[in-house]
Amino acid sequence: MPVVAHISDLHFGRTDTTVVEALLGDLARQRPDLVIVSGDLTQRARTRQFAEARDFLDRLPAPALVVPGNHDIAPLYRPLNRLFRPRAKFERHLPGHADWPLWHDDKLVAVGLDSTRPLRWKSGKLRSRHLERVEEVLAAAPASACKVAFLHHPPRTAQAGHPYDALAERGIDLILTGHAHRAHMEIISGPHEHSCILLQASTACSTRLREDANGYGLIHVDMPWIEVNVRGWSGEAFHPVHRQRFLKQDGCWRMAGQP
């Protein structure tokens, strides 16, 4: 049974060292097979912040897949870099995490999609090239595998582009996002009787808190079941906050216990 840790919005440059160390310790105890980071590893895309993010990734207890968030591309006060080389620092300081991150085995297929928009500060976008990449990856995926897409922006912050139910229509089971610094889960239904699960993580270790405390998701995959355990920071340790099971039947996902 694959176990995936989903973390997001680390914001190195605005982190609490105590929470960072506790997060690494909790991940080591949970022993995930894969860690997915859905963007905003840095606060202002500065060299030192990328160095801290790289050190964090190197200390993770499992392989990591990473996509950038809007805070990881060249800032607005450097307009030429923002326009012509928006991801240059991300690519230079996080080698191996650029382009199209991918995990592929018999039970789990995960593909990263860069939803950042250099001409916008906060909003994201699902482009045609993302859907083409998903189609390419899923064409080679085992039918029984859980198919995951991860990107920084959740649907309600996306502007223009394709609706996220297009991912469900192409066979994605699970979408992982961040950006809003709030844990959230729901079912996204497509127009042709397909659906997928949307899981949104709160900020993992940043002091930039909103509605939720620091936290992350621990996802147990045993198709056609997925169990999500949200773990949150109590001020002393990460602990279980919420548990939800999902079941896939006839191409559609539902929360366990619901008709």
Describe this structure in words.
There is one protein chain. With 259 residues, the chain is α/β, with parallel strands linked by helices. The protein is built from six helices and 13 strands. It has a single domain (3-255), classed as Metallo-dependent phosphatases (Purple Acid Phosphatase, chain A, domain 2, 4-Layer Sandwich). 21% of the residues lie in helices and 29% in strands. The chain has a seven-stranded mixed β-sheet, covered by helices on one side. A six-stranded mixed β-sheet has the order 4-5-6-7-9-8. The longest helix is centred in the N-terminal third of the chain and has 14 residues, at 17-30. It is globular.
SSE inventory with pairings:
Layout: E1 3-7, H1 17-30, E2 34-38, H2 47-58, E3 64-67, H3 79-84, H4 88-93, E4 102-104, E5 108-112, H5 128-139, E6 146-150, H6 165-169, E7 174-177, E8 184-189, E9 195-200, E10 215-222, E11 225-233, E12 238-249, E13 252-255
Parallel strand pairs: 1-2, 2-3, 5-6, 6-7, 7-9
Antiparallel strand pairs: 1-10, 4-5, 8-9, 10-11, 11-12, 12-13
